[in-house]
Amino acid sequence: VTSADLVSLRTNLELELLDQAAHDLRAQLSPADEFVPDSLRVVRVEQEQFDRTAGAAAESLRLELTLEVEGLAFRRSEAQAALEAQLPERLPDGWQLIPGTLSFQAVEPEVQRPDGAAIMGSFQVRADTARQVSFDQVRRLARGAPTARIAGDLSSEFDLLQLPTIQTSPAWLPWLPWLEMQIEVRWPWEGS
Hints:
This protein is 32% helix and 27% strand. The chain is α+β, with helices and mostly antiparallel strands. The strands form three sheets. Strands 1-2 form a two-stranded antiparallel sheet. The mean pLDDT is 88.
């Protein structure tokens, strides 16, 4: 038995135990919870006993290894709600989060040990945003305006990335209504 044999057995057994611990932790979670695989950490070695020492003659080597491990899991719906509440505060002024576009995944957490501090998780977040626009101001600018010109005017006024869609009823009207209350303004994601 060489020192390399001891290290190799210890390393391989620890990897197997961590895989088993990850499997067991996943089995304990509800379907609403998500386990962060990279968060699995050995907290303490509770038992480590080889049946042979380095230099002993042997055809086999046995190791009893017991580890205390911890990992990070989170409830996806709660994480989504927290991110949707916090993300708008981090957007530049004049921008808003487009509903339903937020997606995220957990990234490798920071572990602050050995003082017993908790594991800190992080998320990689993606969401679409749009400029905030005052619908009252849109109505004031649009009332009585020619339909052929208003999309370009609104795009210039609010520095929009794409032209807004303008619809009149009946469709052949060449201008928008004069009364602001007859002008309906909505975001594309709000549907018709």
